[in-house]
Protein backbone atom coordinates (compact mmCIF):
# COMPACT_ATOMS: atom_id res chain seq x y z
CA UNK A 1 0.00 0.00 0.00
CA UNK A 2 2.85 2.37 0.86
CA UNK A 3 4.27 1.98 -2.65
CA UNK A 4 0.92 2.95 -4.15
CA UNK A 5 0.79 6.04 -1.94
CA UNK A 6 4.28 7.11 -3.06
CA UNK A 7 3.30 6.59 -6.69
CA UNK A 8 0.10 8.61 -6.25
CA UNK A 9 2.00 11.37 -4.42
CA UNK A 10 4.48 11.71 -7.27
CA UNK A 11 1.60 11.60 -9.78
CA UNK A 12 -0.13 14.37 -7.82
CA UNK A 13 3.07 16.44 -7.99
CA UNK A 14 3.25 16.06 -11.74
CA UNK A 15 -0.44 16.91 -12.19
CA UNK A 16 -0.26 20.01 -9.99
CA UNK A 17 2.91 21.33 -11.61
CA UNK A 18 2.43 20.36 -15.25
CA UNK A 19 -1.34 20.46 -15.73
CA UNK A 20 -2.75 22.75 -13.03
CA UNK A 21 0.29 25.06 -13.23
CA UNK A 22 0.66 25.34 -9.45
CA UNK A 23 3.96 26.79 -8.27
CA UNK A 24 6.26 23.80 -7.52
CA UNK A 25 6.88 24.91 -3.92
CA UNK A 26 3.15 24.92 -3.17
CA UNK A 27 2.69 21.63 -5.02
CA UNK A 28 5.44 20.06 -2.92
CA UNK A 29 3.81 21.23 0.30
CA UNK A 30 0.42 19.82 -0.71
CA UNK A 31 1.92 16.49 -1.83
CA UNK A 32 4.10 16.26 1.28
CA UNK A 33 1.22 16.84 3.70
CA UNK A 34 -1.06 14.38 1.91
CA UNK A 35 1.68 11.75 1.65
CA UNK A 36 2.43 12.09 5.35
CA UNK A 37 -1.25 11.73 6.17
CA UNK A 38 -1.80 8.59 4.09
CA UNK A 39 1.54 6.99 5.02
CA UNK A 40 0.44 6.95 8.63
CA UNK A 41 2.73 9.56 10.15
CA UNK A 42 1.08 10.86 13.35
CA UNK A 43 -0.82 14.05 12.63
CA UNK A 44 1.19 16.04 15.14
CA UNK A 45 4.45 15.01 13.40
CA UNK A 46 3.59 15.73 9.76
CA UNK A 47 4.13 19.50 9.85
CA UNK A 48 7.32 18.98 11.84
CA UNK A 49 8.65 16.56 9.20
CA UNK A 50 7.90 19.13 6.47
CA UNK A 51 9.68 21.87 8.41
CA UNK A 52 12.63 19.61 9.20
CA UNK A 53 13.00 18.64 5.54
CA UNK A 54 13.00 22.27 4.47
CA UNK A 55 15.39 23.29 7.22
CA UNK A 56 17.82 20.43 6.71
CA UNK A 57 18.11 20.95 2.97
CA UNK A 58 18.16 24.73 2.93
CA UNK A 59 20.46 24.83 5.94
CA UNK A 60 23.18 23.16 3.91
CA UNK A 61 22.44 24.87 0.61
CA UNK A 62 21.11 28.39 1.06
CA UNK A 63 24.43 30.03 1.94
CA UNK A 64 26.37 28.26 -0.78
CA UNK A 65 23.73 28.82 -3.48
CA UNK A 66 23.15 32.47 -2.56
CA UNK A 67 26.83 33.37 -2.38
CA UNK A 68 27.48 31.29 -5.47
CA UNK A 69 24.83 33.25 -7.37
CA UNK A 70 26.47 36.50 -6.30
CA UNK A 71 29.91 35.25 -7.31
CA UNK A 72 28.51 34.08 -10.64
CA UNK A 73 26.92 37.50 -11.18
CA UNK A 74 30.13 39.49 -10.71
CA UNK A 75 32.16 36.95 -12.67
CA UNK A 76 29.71 37.42 -15.53
CA UNK A 77 29.27 41.21 -15.26
CA UNK A 78 32.99 41.90 -14.98
CA UNK A 79 33.77 39.91 -18.12
CA UNK A 80 35.82 37.31 -16.23
CA UNK A 81 33.65 34.45 -17.51
CA UNK A 82 33.93 35.84 -21.02
CA UNK A 83 37.71 35.96 -20.68
CA UNK A 84 37.89 32.35 -19.48
CA UNK A 85 35.54 31.22 -22.24
CA UNK A 86 37.71 32.92 -24.85
CA UNK A 87 40.79 31.23 -23.41
CA UNK A 88 39.12 27.81 -23.52
CA UNK A 89 37.97 28.44 -27.06
CA UNK A 90 41.47 29.34 -28.14
CA UNK A 91 43.07 26.41 -26.29
CA UNK A 92 40.63 23.69 -27.32
CA UNK A 93 38.79 25.10 -30.29
CA UNK A 94 35.05 25.46 -30.63
CA UNK A 95 34.52 21.86 -31.67
CA UNK A 96 36.35 20.52 -28.60
CA UNK A 97 34.97 22.93 -26.03
CA UNK A 98 32.63 20.35 -24.51
CA UNK A 99 35.69 18.26 -23.62
CA UNK A 100 37.27 21.26 -21.90
CA UNK A 101 34.09 21.79 -19.85
CA UNK A 102 34.03 18.10 -18.88
CA UNK A 103 37.68 18.15 -17.79
CA UNK A 104 37.23 21.34 -15.81
CA UNK A 105 34.08 20.00 -14.11
CA UNK A 106 35.80 16.72 -13.24
CA UNK A 107 38.70 18.48 -11.55
CA UNK A 108 36.34 20.87 -9.76
CA UNK A 109 33.92 18.10 -8.81
CA UNK A 110 36.42 15.96 -6.92
CA UNK A 111 36.77 18.30 -3.92
CA UNK A 112 33.45 20.17 -4.24
CA UNK A 113 29.92 19.09 -3.42
CA UNK A 114 27.62 18.91 -6.44
CA UNK A 115 25.74 22.09 -5.57
CA UNK A 116 28.91 24.09 -4.95
CA UNK A 117 30.50 22.98 -8.21
CA UNK A 118 27.24 23.61 -10.03
CA UNK A 119 26.84 27.24 -8.99
CA UNK A 120 30.52 27.87 -9.70
CA UNK A 121 30.58 26.42 -13.20
CA UNK A 122 27.12 27.24 -14.53
CA UNK A 123 28.05 30.88 -15.38
CA UNK A 124 30.92 29.59 -17.53
CA UNK A 125 28.55 27.20 -19.32
CA UNK A 126 26.08 30.01 -19.97
CA UNK A 127 28.83 32.30 -21.25
CA UNK A 128 29.99 29.66 -23.72
CA UNK A 129 26.38 29.01 -24.76
CA UNK A 130 25.56 32.63 -25.52
CA UNK A 131 28.91 33.90 -26.78
CA UNK A 132 29.65 31.07 -29.21
CA UNK A 133 26.05 30.08 -30.01
CA UNK A 134 26.62 26.50 -28.90
CA UNK A 135 23.54 24.46 -27.87
CA UNK A 136 23.18 24.81 -24.10
CA UNK A 137 22.92 21.09 -23.38
CA UNK A 138 26.00 20.28 -25.49
CA UNK A 139 28.17 21.97 -22.86
CA UNK A 140 25.75 21.61 -19.94
CA UNK A 141 25.57 17.81 -20.07
CA UNK A 142 29.38 17.31 -19.75
CA UNK A 143 29.44 19.61 -16.72
CA UNK A 144 26.52 17.83 -15.06
CA UNK A 145 27.91 14.37 -15.81
CA UNK A 146 31.29 15.14 -14.25
CA UNK A 147 29.80 16.72 -11.15
CA UNK A 148 27.27 13.91 -10.68
CA UNK A 149 29.80 11.08 -11.03
CA UNK A 150 32.28 12.62 -8.61
CA UNK A 151 29.47 13.32 -6.13
CA UNK A 152 28.17 9.76 -6.14
CA UNK A 153 31.35 7.71 -6.40
CA UNK A 154 34.42 9.53 -5.16
CA UNK A 155 35.60 10.42 -1.67
CA UNK A 156 35.66 12.97 -0.06
CA UNK A 157 31.97 13.34 -0.90
CA UNK A 158 29.64 12.51 2.02
CA UNK A 159 27.99 9.29 0.83
CA UNK A 160 31.16 7.52 -0.41
CA UNK A 161 33.05 8.47 2.75
CA UNK A 162 30.22 7.19 4.96
CA UNK A 163 30.00 3.93 3.00
CA UNK A 164 33.76 3.38 3.23
CA UNK A 165 33.53 3.63 7.01
CA UNK A 166 30.44 1.41 7.26
CA UNK A 167 31.90 -1.36 5.09
CA UNK A 168 35.41 -1.01 6.53
CA UNK A 169 36.67 -0.41 3.00
CA UNK A 170 39.96 1.17 2.02
CA UNK A 171 39.59 4.86 1.18
CA UNK A 172 42.57 4.87 -1.17
CA UNK A 173 41.49 1.78 -3.11
CA UNK A 174 37.92 3.04 -3.32
CA UNK A 175 39.20 6.31 -4.76
CA UNK A 176 41.43 4.50 -7.27
CA UNK A 177 38.64 2.16 -8.40
CA UNK A 178 36.28 5.12 -8.48
CA UNK A 179 38.59 7.10 -10.74
CA UNK A 180 38.97 4.09 -13.05
CA UNK A 181 35.17 4.01 -13.40
CA UNK A 182 34.61 7.75 -13.38
CA UNK A 183 36.65 8.59 -16.48
CA UNK A 184 34.74 6.41 -18.99
CA UNK A 185 31.43 7.21 -17.24
CA UNK A 186 31.99 10.94 -17.68
CA UNK A 187 33.16 10.57 -21.28
CA UNK A 188 30.09 8.55 -22.30
CA UNK A 189 27.46 10.37 -20.21
CA UNK A 190 29.05 13.78 -20.79
CA UNK A 191 30.62 14.91 -24.08
CA UNK A 192 29.32 11.91 -26.07
CA UNK A 193 25.75 12.05 -24.74
CA UNK A 194 25.76 15.83 -25.08
CA UNK A 195 26.32 15.40 -28.81
CA UNK A 196 23.10 13.39 -29.18
CA UNK A 197 20.94 15.04 -31.91
CA UNK A 198 17.85 15.38 -29.70
CA UNK A 199 19.86 17.25 -27.05
CA UNK A 200 21.62 19.48 -29.59
CA UNK A 201 18.24 20.42 -31.06
CA UNK A 202 16.67 21.06 -27.65
CA UNK A 203 15.67 24.73 -27.54
CA UNK A 204 16.97 26.01 -24.23
CA UNK A 205 17.54 29.56 -23.09
CA UNK A 206 19.40 29.53 -19.74
CA UNK A 207 18.84 32.27 -17.18
CA UNK A 208 20.56 35.42 -18.40
CA UNK A 209 20.91 36.79 -14.87
CA UNK A 210 24.28 35.04 -14.73
CA UNK A 211 25.38 36.47 -18.07
CA UNK A 212 27.16 39.76 -18.48
CA UNK A 213 26.89 41.83 -21.64
CA UNK A 214 29.68 41.03 -24.16
CA UNK A 215 32.62 43.38 -23.67
CA UNK A 216 35.50 44.45 -25.84
CA UNK A 217 38.72 42.54 -25.20
CA UNK A 218 40.37 45.65 -23.81
CA UNK A 219 37.66 45.99 -21.16
CA UNK A 220 38.05 42.43 -19.87
CA UNK A 221 40.03 41.60 -16.72
CA UNK A 222 43.27 39.70 -17.11
CA UNK A 223 43.20 35.94 -17.53
CA UNK A 224 45.03 35.29 -14.25
CA UNK A 225 42.67 37.58 -12.32
CA UNK A 226 39.65 35.97 -14.01
CA UNK A 227 40.78 32.43 -13.22
CA UNK A 228 41.79 33.17 -9.63
CA UNK A 229 38.64 35.13 -8.81
CA UNK A 230 36.32 32.61 -10.46
CA UNK A 231 37.98 29.44 -9.16
CA UNK A 232 39.25 30.66 -5.79
CA UNK A 233 36.75 28.42 -3.95
CA UNK A 234 38.22 25.41 -5.75
CA UNK A 235 41.79 26.38 -4.92
CA UNK A 236 40.91 27.02 -1.28
CA UNK A 237 38.96 23.81 -0.75
CA UNK A 238 41.59 21.62 -2.40
CA UNK A 239 44.51 23.19 -0.56
CA UNK A 240 42.73 23.27 2.80
CA UNK A 241 41.59 19.66 2.42
CA UNK A 242 45.13 18.51 1.64
CA UNK A 243 46.52 20.58 4.48
CA UNK A 244 44.04 19.13 6.98
CA UNK A 245 45.34 15.64 6.20
CA UNK A 246 48.64 16.61 7.80
CA UNK A 247 46.97 17.45 11.12
CA UNK A 248 45.76 15.07 13.79
CA UNK A 249 42.05 15.65 14.58
CA UNK A 250 43.06 16.52 18.14
CA UNK A 251 45.45 19.25 16.99
CA UNK A 252 44.13 22.81 17.50
CA UNK A 253 44.99 23.65 13.90
CA UNK A 254 42.66 20.93 12.62
CA UNK A 255 39.55 22.66 14.00
CA UNK A 256 40.66 25.95 12.42
CA UNK A 257 41.16 24.27 9.04
CA UNK A 258 37.73 22.66 9.32
CA UNK A 259 36.25 26.10 9.98
CA UNK A 260 37.88 28.01 7.13
CA UNK A 261 37.50 24.99 4.83
CA UNK A 262 33.72 24.90 5.27
CA UNK A 263 32.10 25.56 1.86
CA UNK A 264 30.04 28.44 3.26
CA UNK A 265 33.11 30.19 4.67
CA UNK A 266 35.10 29.52 1.52
CA UNK A 267 32.32 30.98 -0.62
CA UNK A 268 32.13 34.11 1.54
CA UNK A 269 35.89 34.66 1.39
CA UNK A 270 35.85 34.09 -2.37
CA UNK A 271 32.99 36.53 -2.87
CA UNK A 272 34.77 39.23 -0.87
CA UNK A 273 37.92 38.69 -2.95
CA UNK A 274 35.97 38.84 -6.23
CA UNK A 275 34.11 41.95 -5.09
CA UNK A 276 37.41 43.79 -4.91
CA UNK A 277 39.43 42.06 -7.64
CA UNK A 278 36.68 42.20 -10.28
CA UNK A 279 34.68 45.12 -8.99
CA UNK A 280 36.23 47.80 -6.78
CA UNK A 281 39.67 47.70 -8.40
CA UNK A 282 37.99 48.04 -11.82
CA UNK A 283 36.29 51.27 -10.85
CA UNK A 284 32.90 49.95 -9.76
CA UNK A 285 31.25 51.34 -6.66
CA UNK A 286 30.24 49.05 -3.81
CA UNK A 287 26.64 50.16 -4.30
CA UNK A 288 26.53 49.10 -7.96
CA UNK A 289 28.13 45.77 -7.10
CA UNK A 290 25.60 45.17 -4.32
CA UNK A 291 22.75 46.07 -6.69
CA UNK A 292 23.97 43.30 -8.96
CA UNK A 293 24.06 40.89 -6.04
CA UNK A 294 20.49 41.82 -5.17
CA UNK A 295 19.34 40.98 -8.68
CA UNK A 296 21.13 37.63 -8.50
CA UNK A 297 19.44 36.75 -5.20
CA UNK A 298 16.00 37.75 -6.46
CA UNK A 299 16.40 35.48 -9.44
CA UNK A 300 17.28 32.41 -7.39
CA UNK A 301 14.66 32.92 -4.66
CA UNK A 302 12.21 30.64 -6.45
CA UNK A 303 14.93 28.05 -6.96
CA UNK A 304 15.55 27.96 -3.22
CA UNK A 305 11.84 27.51 -2.53
CA UNK A 306 11.55 24.66 -5.01
CA UNK A 307 14.56 22.89 -3.51
CA UNK A 308 13.03 23.44 -0.06
CA UNK A 309 9.80 21.82 -1.23
CA UNK A 310 11.72 18.80 -2.50
CA UNK A 311 13.37 18.58 0.91
CA UNK A 312 9.98 18.57 2.63
CA UNK A 313 8.69 15.77 0.41
CA UNK A 314 11.85 13.72 0.94
CA UNK A 315 11.67 14.06 4.74
CA UNK A 316 8.04 12.94 4.84
CA UNK A 317 8.98 9.77 2.98
CA UNK A 318 11.96 9.19 5.28
CA UNK A 319 9.87 9.86 8.40
CA UNK A 320 7.29 7.32 7.24
CA UNK A 321 9.94 4.59 7.19
CA UNK A 322 9.13 3.62 3.62
CA UNK A 323 12.80 3.49 2.58
CA UNK A 324 13.51 0.84 5.23
CA UNK A 325 10.41 -1.09 4.18
CA UNK A 326 11.57 -1.15 0.58
CA UNK A 327 15.03 -2.32 1.56
CA UNK A 328 13.80 -5.07 3.87
CA UNK A 329 11.63 -6.49 1.12
CA UNK A 330 14.53 -6.55 -1.36
CA UNK A 331 17.03 -8.01 1.11
CA UNK A 332 15.49 -11.45 0.63
CA UNK A 333 16.35 -11.49 -3.08
CA UNK A 334 19.01 -14.01 -4.14
CA UNK A 335 21.51 -12.43 -6.53
CA UNK A 336 25.01 -10.96 -6.79
CA UNK A 337 25.36 -8.73 -3.67
CA UNK A 338 26.85 -5.93 -5.79
CA UNK A 339 23.79 -5.98 -8.05
CA UNK A 340 21.50 -6.21 -5.03
CA UNK A 341 23.13 -3.19 -3.41
CA UNK A 342 22.74 -1.22 -6.65
CA UNK A 343 19.06 -2.18 -6.98
CA UNK A 344 18.23 -1.30 -3.38
CA UNK A 345 19.94 2.09 -3.68
CA UNK A 346 18.22 2.70 -7.04
CA UNK A 347 14.71 1.94 -5.78
CA UNK A 348 15.16 4.07 -2.66
CA UNK A 349 16.57 6.87 -4.80
CA UNK A 350 13.57 6.76 -7.13
CA UNK A 351 11.15 6.68 -4.19
CA UNK A 352 12.79 9.18 -1.85
CA UNK A 353 14.78 11.45 -4.19
CA UNK A 354 17.95 12.01 -2.18
CA UNK A 355 21.04 10.23 -3.48
CA UNK A 356 22.71 10.49 -0.09
CA UNK A 357 19.69 9.06 1.75
CA UNK A 358 19.44 6.27 -0.82
CA UNK A 359 23.12 5.37 -0.47
CA UNK A 360 23.17 5.40 3.33
CA UNK A 361 19.90 3.49 3.64
CA UNK A 362 21.07 0.86 1.15
CA UNK A 363 24.34 0.52 3.04
CA UNK A 364 22.51 -0.33 6.24
CA UNK A 365 20.46 -2.96 4.45
CA UNK A 366 23.34 -4.76 2.72
CA UNK A 367 25.72 -4.47 5.69
CA UNK A 368 24.84 -7.99 6.96
CA UNK A 369 25.71 -9.38 3.52
CA UNK A 370 29.22 -7.97 3.87
CA UNK A 371 29.98 -9.99 7.01
CA UNK A 372 30.64 -13.13 5.00
CA UNK A 373 33.66 -11.43 3.42
CA UNK A 374 32.85 -12.68 -0.09
CA UNK A 375 32.22 -9.19 -1.50
CA UNK A 376 34.87 -6.55 -2.21
CA UNK A 377 33.82 -3.70 0.11
CA UNK A 378 35.41 -1.06 -2.11
CA UNK A 379 33.29 -2.19 -5.04
CA UNK A 380 30.16 -2.27 -2.89
CA UNK A 381 30.74 1.40 -2.07
CA UNK A 382 30.86 2.19 -5.79
CA UNK A 383 27.92 -0.04 -6.67
CA UNK A 384 25.63 1.59 -4.12
CA UNK A 385 26.95 5.02 -5.08
CA UNK A 386 26.09 4.38 -8.73
CA UNK A 387 22.63 3.07 -7.90
CA UNK A 388 21.89 6.12 -5.76
CA UNK A 389 22.21 8.38 -8.82
CA UNK A 390 19.59 6.76 -11.06
CA UNK A 391 16.45 8.41 -12.46
CA UNK A 392 16.48 11.80 -10.74
CA UNK A 393 12.98 13.22 -11.06
CA UNK A 394 10.51 15.59 -9.38
CA UNK A 395 11.23 14.47 -5.80
CA UNK A 396 14.93 15.31 -6.10
CA UNK A 397 16.25 18.79 -5.29
CA UNK A 398 18.94 18.38 -7.96
CA UNK A 399 16.24 17.94 -10.60
CA UNK A 400 14.80 21.35 -9.79
CA UNK A 401 18.23 22.97 -9.50
CA UNK A 402 19.05 21.91 -13.06
CA UNK A 403 15.57 22.72 -14.36
CA UNK A 404 15.43 26.25 -12.99
CA UNK A 405 19.03 27.30 -13.70
CA UNK A 406 18.89 26.02 -17.27
CA UNK A 407 15.32 27.29 -17.65
CA UNK A 408 14.08 23.90 -18.85
CA UNK A 409 10.57 22.52 -18.99
CA UNK A 410 9.70 19.41 -16.97
CA UNK A 411 9.85 17.33 -20.15
CA UNK A 412 13.21 18.76 -21.18
CA UNK A 413 14.66 18.09 -17.72
CA UNK A 414 13.49 14.49 -17.89
CA UNK A 415 14.99 14.12 -21.38
CA UNK A 416 18.34 15.57 -20.36
CA UNK A 417 19.18 15.48 -16.63
CA UNK A 418 17.09 12.39 -15.77
CA UNK A 419 18.47 10.53 -18.77
CA UNK A 420 22.02 11.53 -17.88
CA UNK A 421 21.64 10.29 -14.28
CA UNK A 422 20.20 6.99 -15.48
CA UNK A 423 23.03 6.48 -17.99
CA UNK A 424 25.58 7.24 -15.26
CA UNK A 425 23.96 4.75 -12.87
CA UNK A 426 23.85 1.93 -15.43
CA UNK A 427 27.43 2.58 -16.58
CA UNK A 428 28.53 2.54 -12.95
CA UNK A 429 26.94 -0.86 -12.38
CA UNK A 430 28.49 -2.33 -15.52
CA UNK A 431 31.88 -0.95 -14.52
CA UNK A 432 31.64 -2.36 -10.99
CA UNK A 433 30.67 -5.80 -12.29
CA UNK A 434 33.56 -5.68 -14.77
CA UNK A 435 36.04 -4.77 -12.03
CA UNK A 436 34.62 -7.53 -9.83
CA UNK A 437 35.22 -10.03 -12.64
CA UNK A 438 38.79 -8.78 -13.19
CA UNK A 439 39.71 -8.63 -9.51
From TrEMBL:
Give UniProt keywords alphabetically. Answer: Cell membrane, Membrane, Transmembrane, Transmembrane helix, Transport
Question: Can you say where in the cell this protein is located?
Answer: Cell membrane
Keyword Cell membrane part of the UniProt annotation: yes
Sequence intervals crossing the membrane: 26-45, 57-76, 96-122, 134-154, 174-198, 219-243, 255-280, 292-313, 339-367, 379-402, 414-438
Stored NCBIfam families: gntP (TIGR00791)
Where mainly located?
A: membrane
- Protein's recorded name: Gluconate:H+ symporter
The root-end lineage is:
Bacteria, Pseudomonadati, Bacteroidota, Cytophagia, Cytophagales
